[in-house]
Amino acid sequence: MKIGIVSLGCCKNLVDSQKAMSFLQASGHTFVDNPKSAEVILINTCGFINDAKQESIDTILQMADYKNNKLRYLIVMGCLVQRYREELEKELPEVDLFITIDEYNDLENILNNFLNSKTVKEKKVVLATNNHSAYLKIADGCSNKCAYCAIPLIRKEYRSIKIEELIKQAKKLEEIGVKELNIIAQDTTRYGIDLYGKYRLADLLYELNKMDFTWIRILYMYPDEINDELLEAMAICDKVVPYFDIPIQHANDRILKLMNRRGNKKNLVEIVNKIREKFENPILRTTIIVGFPTETAEEFQELLEFIKEIRWNKLGAFTYSLEEDTASYDMEPKVEEKVANKRLEKLMLIQEKIAQSNNETYVGKTLDVLVEGRDALDKKLYQGRSYANAPDGIDGHVRFTSSKDIEIGEFVSVKIESVNVHDLFGKEVI
Ligand code: SF4
Description:
By secondary structure, the chain is of the alpha/beta class. The protein is 35% helix and 21% strand.
């Protein structure tokens, strides 16, 4: 059958979509980009915050419209189903099959049974990204229980995947020519604790560094788990890029405590200083929540001062999203939506200035760039990423010109000539 895949939400979801695609491909199905030509559409939903839930519902309804066309089945899986299966079954009769995250262990059978397919022979790796960059999911679930977050309710306790299994997965990715390996989990730095009784991300890095990847990148690090052993491994492993994605959420001690986050402002400053002392040009990325219940104007101001002091290279910020069954649901007083939006705007204006001046430091420098696209009209124009840009679309790109024909997935050297808040612009150095 011809199958269309829509993967919403974070890259952890993308990995689950990839898994479903591998099973489907092994059963003889093929994939199409255009939903109009699909006989089956599989939507992997996100249920993290209200905007994501709305996007998931809108997408389901939008895809259901194709049922007047060629589409025979609509399958919906992922976080939204895990959280609201009963309600969705009642409200969305257009959907033929719902699959919760709890059922992922049996995903292959569920899909095959439903699609009445042949027996699976050999599983090949299918990338929902592309062949040069891939995600390696090292754990499922989360045990941190941040007060605003529904993920532990949806994805359950943290479960590390055995090192041997991860090496096997990484080898398959190496074989198909992946050059950039991105390590993900809800909390990558916790890796190993549940399975081995100790943190083992550093051990995993030493193993992966022996393989034929050019870049290894770690995403979603929990600040208080970034220990000396891990920093040492990152410094020793030449393929591991000095990229630190550390979601901190806030900087005021009272709010951090209320959020049920471990550590305080002083600890955060110490971690950042340690990283900056040990690594040359480290990239620091974070995420922030503004307007958490009870956040005062002074506490927000303290957050702004902290942002100015640290000068994060990349920063994503969101207003607090009220999620039922989370610890913060009943916390009062709530910050008015209007006030939260104003705070967000203020914070992003400050960050834009910081990002612009951080980017300006690249002018005149030459960067290694992984090429990911070529302009359809102007063939001399390419787009790629340096080690400073993760592949999840948040960090911006390097756009450059070249007179050569460059293959997607190649590494080239680019001299940076100008910048804006998001992107760097330059020319290939030949
Ligand atoms: S670390 Fe906190 S915010 Fe991240 S998934 Fe776990 S509970 Fe949610």
